[in-house]
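dumping these here so i dont lose them again. two proteins, back to back, each one seq then structure tokens. dont judge the mess
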Amino acid sequence: FGQLYEPIVWEEQLVLSKLHAPFPGASSIGMLYEIDIDVRDTDRSIPFTYETHHTITRVRDQTAIDRHNKGYISMYNVDSLVELKVRVISAEGVVKEMPKESFKYIENFEDHGPFMIYAVEGLTPGSEIEVLYKIKTMDLYFGRNYFQFDYPIQEARFSIVSPATYKLNAKGYNGFETIS
């Protein structure tokens, strides 16, 4: 079935996200968590995909800051890292983008394979961190994305866009619909 597709956008003018529920006791709140998988057909027999991940997370205390002041992107089976952006917006509305020096590729991170890691500076209670990255992979036929967290997520989206010649199935658990 088809739905109205809205691609992920990196807003140039960032403002703090509106909190729709208080989430008492939550140290971190996922204001937005979205994944976009775009399957592209090529002249080759194997298609490739662009997979875009976009998150906005509010930190409320030092525990959340310690948890979110670094990030890890698995580069296993990744053909290329197309885009990587990270920024922080303070509770006062000051935006700070992380410089290229904050990102580092490690061939075998703690015996878990290749990773792109990054450091985040400027997090204070009440601030938000926004991360957007896009990877290109040649692996289409199997994969998984987890929407399971130990902190609340206010809004989550998952979309798959593919040519009509491909039949893709997705299995949802714990309230997510199964689509095909």
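---- next one ----
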Amino acid sequence: MASKKKSSFVNMVVVLLLVAAIAATALASVYQVTKGPIEKAKLEKDKNAVGNVVPEFNNDPVSESDTLAFNERDQLIFYPAKMDGTLVGMAVKTYSDLGFTERIKIMVGFTIDGKIVNTTVLEHKETPGLGDKMDIKKSTWCEQFIDLNIREIEDTDGDD
């Protein structure tokens, strides 16, 4: 029968380092394997969202998108919707920091004359049963914005 090794500080440190190295290697491997499919799924999600919020188009708005970055975290992404080369609308991937948990990512579609075609929530982490009612499957809140002309909205907060 093998004798039991006595625990020592060196033994514990070596075992801990070995476990940490194995866990880090496994985590890095999983990240490398899933990085591509996750990015592809995000692009597909954006493509579907653009299709839901703008008039009919026949170009690839995701590949023609343009980003307006305010800093590393804050940016707007514009997706031009074109029919036979003519701009028919614009989808804007934007956000709101007014959620209770994290940033809410939203896609808003406009016609070229400034009317909102539709909106959709792309990502949120709101509390189920409360804040998640912004999900189109649970509420029709976004219908209030359809056909709203942004050029006719009055500035009520006093800012220019």
